[in-house]
């Protein structure tokens, strides 16, 4: 497994986190930032995962631009 394959895997993982709908998927399970602020468990593992999901959702535009760059690069490089 090369470095490029690892980077593509991380990009796919970031895309998967970015498309999670907070209202339909995360809220019924209690995985929202508001829920964590009320309980005060921001430094727990669950809090870190919710923070990562929120960061990926917040950075959607740069993620889309990075996806476009990878697609164009793969089109030209083969």
Spell out the key features of this protein.
elongated, 78 residues, 77% helix, single chain, mainly alpha, Yos1, transport, transmembrane helix, membrane
How do the helices and strands line up, and which of them pair or pack?
Layout: H1 3-18, H2 22-26, H3 33-39, H4 45-58, H5 60-77
Subcellular location: Membrane
Family: Belongs to the YOS1 family.
Signal peptide: 1-18
In DSSP terms (H or I, runs of 4 or more residues), the helix count works out at 5
Overall shape: elongated
Mean pLDDT: 87
Distance between the termini: 18 Å
Main sheet record: none
User: Taking Cα atoms only, what radius of gyration do you get, to the nearest Å?
Assistant: 15 Å
Count of distinct strands? 0
Percent helix range: over 70%
The succession of helices and strands, N to C, reads: HHHHH
How many separate domains?
1
The parts where pLDDT drops under 50 for at least 5 residues are none
Question: Which structural class do the helices and strands define?
Answer: mainly alpha
Beta-strand share of residues = under 5%
Pfam family, one: Yos1
InterPro entries: Yos1
Family: Belongs to the YOS1 family.
Signal peptide: 1-18
